[in-house]
Design brief:
- This protein has 83 residues and is of the alpha/beta class.
- It has one domain (2-82).
- 43% of the residues lie in helices and 17% in strands.
- It has 3 helices and 4 strands; from the N terminus they run βαβαβαβ.
- Helix 1 (11-19) links the parallel strand 1 (2-5) and strand 2 (23-26).
- It is globular and about 30 Å long.
- The chain starts with a strand and ends with a strand.
Length: 83
């Protein structure tokens, strides 16, 4: 899957997704610093993942991997998903 990451997503999430074989695009490299949900409402998207902040990055990564494993690409498509 391809993941565009919002401006406030830590770089280590990019590395984790890449290690799982996913393509990553850091939006801060290509877009001005606007609210991602506002931008997403203006253009079609394959689905959004909102990563909930947790006490550690390890817990955040585990929640994201859990979502990806359980929902899969078809489950994410067209939805706003929380991990």
């Amino acid at each position: 899957m391809r993941f565009p990451l919002d401006h406030d997503v830590p770089d280590d999430m990019e590395y984790s997704l890449a290690a799982l074989g996913h393509a990553v695009l850091k939006l801060r490299d290509v877009l001005p610093s606007d609210d991602f949900l506002t931008i997403a409402g203006l253009v079609p998207h394959a689905g959004l993942v909102i990563l909930i902040r947790r006490r550690s990055r390890a817990q955040e990564r585990a929640a994201l991997v859990h979502l990806l494993d359980n929902a899969g690409e078809s489950g994410l498509r067209g939805n706003i998903n929380f991990a």
